[in-house]
Amino acid sequence: MLTLPFQTHGDIILARDDNTPDLYYATAARPRLAYDREGRPRLKLIRWVAPDSGGTQTTVGARLSLDVDLRPSAADLRAAGFDSTTVQPFPWSAAQIQLEAPEMEPVVAEVFVAVDAPSGLSIDVPPTTASLLMALLQRETTSPLQITWIGTITTRLPAARVVATADKKEIQRRLETTQGHHHRQVLRSLTAANARIALEGVADPELETALREWAISQLTDRLEQDKPLLVEATVADVVPWPVRLPGTLDSHITPVHRQNLVQEIVLDADDVSRSMPVTIRVLGDFSNGLERVDVQIQPALDGELIELTLRDDQSSSVSLGADAFRWRYRPKLKAHSVGDWSTWREDKPGHSLVLPVATPTQLRLEVISAGLDFERRWQLVQVTIIHTLPDQAPISHVVELHTHQRSQIWTQPLKGVRGTVRAEITCLSRQGLSVNTTLESVDTHQIVITDPLAANDRLITLVPKGSGWADIHLVMVDVRYCDGDYCFEETLELPDLSSLRQWHVPVRQGGPLTVNWRYHVSFADGRFQQSLWHSTEESVILISLEGPPQRNVQILPVYFDPAQTSHLEVNLSQTEQTKTAVFT
């Protein structure tokens, strides 16, 4: 797994691997346009126009398709003193692309992140934005069109502790007074101005700056999600790390190519009343063994099934008459039989579909433990990776993670397209519980293993009560949780009436809620007492210890006159006990 801090060498950014000192991860410092086999930029703005009542062409819909490549070139690696054998591309887990220009609403869209290939997007844009983009893309001179890659990678924190918080109400108050299109930038600026960040164990100034920027980004994300503004991270925590890579789109577009960046389609009256067509394209290298990709797409509500074949990276359009649809695909390699269909997927309503089909030279998967407590909770995590290629038997490999091996990399040579990858995960706890989960489809470089019981902890609170705690030296409480053959048991101390203890127990989703408990009492005079086992499904257990029963009697000396009587004793007797009250 890559670690912090990053290093910049010329036009590339590098990060070390935490397990292999000679291995680096690299990305281009600026996003570049991807090009097809004919050398044309993979950038297209499609405008659907229709005449209005006055005969003027009006934009009724527009779609922007854009592919970018962040893989460092061989020349950039050589210039930085590296070669491709010791450098891997950044393992992006998610990304967005943002396009900005003067007087234009920023265009922000999720990116289809491809493995070892360019990544791309296809997004519908408003007519006003489409008109501005068309003017910028068709200009003969340089146009101020900025592109920013906003990606996320998974990294392990160095030997540092980060605690960050901010005043949520103050940020929201200031946000109400701001206006403008750049909401995220304003939100981040206000968060940075109000944030309080504490760092421990950080001596490197560059690392300190990076951790502060990360904390501000995390606070901004939590503010957008309406979550409490508190961020905590410590040594070896696995966290999502944002990476912003700005660039200028015009530096990659020649005047010759500008003539073909915008396509205009004129619609008739019947077309205007229908739903926008769906564009489908493949993110794949058709020069590296990929022959074609078959696609099946079906409108929602059991519409007619449509089949089409894509043989290059150019987009195809289909009219579905609906905004929601489901789809699946299968790749076909040269000199191989056609592969299996993928599982059906249903996307949120939209009008574009991008299919990442990777053809890397090797399958490289990194299995990472994130937030797994190997010291107290988990003994072993076993991950069975199953890679299936067309016309071949599945290949499986087992990766084991434990206290001394928190991540591991598996590589396998490939010839052509990457097949389907499935992961079967078994987490064995130190108390004997075995939790099995399955990832049906792994599309990235990494398999991140999180605690399968993290969201299902039972929190039990022990609360002492009663009048018998004054004569007690110590109370020990046994708490036990069982789910079949798996039992988790612990003994907690309650030293006095003012103490309170909490107990966390990992449970599986849908597991039983019953907790068994009993107490052991050690009295100050040497006596010992043990209760029977009790059971409860509540989250609070009252440890009630009552002393001997007492009767309180109030004596009011209403007729007592100290001038007449100097001394008065009142004796109260019950069975063998006598109490004396003296008035003077």
Cα radius of gyration in angstroms: 34 Å
Low-confidence stretches: none
**Sheet of most strands:** 5 strands, mixed
Helical content stands at: 10-25%
| Domain count | 5
Instruction: Name the overall outline.
Output: elongated
Strand fraction: over 45%
**What is the straight-line distance between the termini?**
83 Å
Mean pLDDT: 83
SS-based structural class? mainly beta
The tally of strands reads 40
Discrete helix count: 7
Reconstruct the topology from this structure:
Elements: E1 7-9, E2 12-16, E3 24-28, E4 32-33, E5 43-51, E6 57-69, H1 74-79, E7 87-89, E8 92-100, E9 107-110, E10 119-124, H2 127-137, E11 146-156, E12 161-165, H3 168-176, H4 183-194, E13 196-200, H5 205-224, E14 230-233, E15 238-248, H6 255-258, E16 262-266, H7 269-272, E17 278-283, E18 290-299, E19 306-310, E20 316-318, E21 325-333, E22 345-346, E23 352-356, E24 362-370, E25 378-388, E26 395-401, E27 407-413, E28 420-429, E29 434-439, E30 446-450, E31 458-465, E32 472-483, E33 486-494, E34 501-505, E35 515-523, E36 528-530, E37 534-536, E38 540-544, E39 568-574, E40 577-583
Parallel strand pairs: 3-7, 5-16, 17-23, 24-30, 31-38
Antiparallel strand pairs: 1-2, 2-3, 4-6, 5-6, 6-10, 8-9, 8-11, 11-15, 12-13, 12-14, 17-20, 18-19, 18-21, 21-22, 24-27, 25-26, 25-28, 28-29, 31-34, 32-33, 32-35, 35-36, 35-37, 39-40
Helix pairs in contact: 3-4, 4-5
